[in-house]
Amino acid sequence: MRLAIGLAATLLTGALVGCGGSSGRSQFATPTVTVDWGARSKGVDGPTSALSFHFDLKDSVAGHTYSTWDGNRSTDPAAYSADYSGSATVRAGTYIFVGNFYAGTDQGGAAVGTVSAPVTVLINGSLRRPDGSPFDGIAFAPAIKSVVVNGQAVTVGNSTTLTATAYDANNQAIAVSPGSFTWATLTGSDVLSLTADGTATGIKVGMATVRAKTDGITSNSTSIDVTAPG
Question: 117-144: per-residue pLDDT in tens?
């Protein structure tokens, strides 16, 4: 059973206010999410039990939310597909797509599924992964093939929750149950404090390397830059 979410974008052109450029215009895209809802499971603690969702398209650095989606799945437990559009157009650029699935309707009840994946919106409205390859959507899949730690910065004296993305054999990002990743510091424990659930706290300026693991699959080591605040 598989719940696949494909992200697309509809290209729009709009006025860009307060930004440089000789034309004073830039291209915007309205993200649209196609959700292939799988047959709803009877269990209440797994992603396929979800009755509703909340999606955010966030700034990859500051975390500002530029577009959101909220919705409920059909009360019919059978599999079906539906499209959901974001609340606002966004400029071409790099974002973090964050999705949460809930056991109840209208984002009620426990969170039963989560996904966080970096995406780049191009000026033609298409979406790409950070390495330039096509972004092929997000899925609840039977097996995880790889884990990628999302590049993040931490400042001295502050804490942040690190994120990672699980991918299947088709390089689709996978929504997993909350708390699925286990984290560890490989080098730089004097620079970065990291808990097993991914809470990272900067100790001093420098570089640390970390890894994330889920379902027996471990990510490559990834560098985390710890910088001075401000």
Answer: 888 877 766 677 888 887 777 776 668 9
- 70 and 90 inside one domain: yes
Spacing of C-alpha 57 from chain mean position: 8
Bridge partners (DSSP) listed for residue 225: 153, 207
Q: State the Cα–Cα distance between residues 138 and 152, nearest whole angstrom.
A: 21
Whether residue 106 sits in one domain with residue 65 = yes
Task: Specify whether 135 is located in the same domain as 58.
Answer: yes
Which among 73, 81, 61, 79 has a CA at the least distance from the CA of 8?
81
What CA–CA distance (Å, rounded) separates 118 from 120? 7
pTM (2 d.p.): 0.77
- Tell me, yes or no, whether 31 and 109 share the same domain: yes
Residue listed under structure tokens 């970390």: 210
Rounded-to-integer distance, Cα 120 and Cα 135, Å: 9
pLDDT tens for each residue of 73-105: 998 888 887 778 888 888 888 888 898 989 899
Count Cβ atoms within 10 A of the Cβ of residue 165 and give its class: 0-12 exposed, 13-18 middle, 19 or more buried: buried
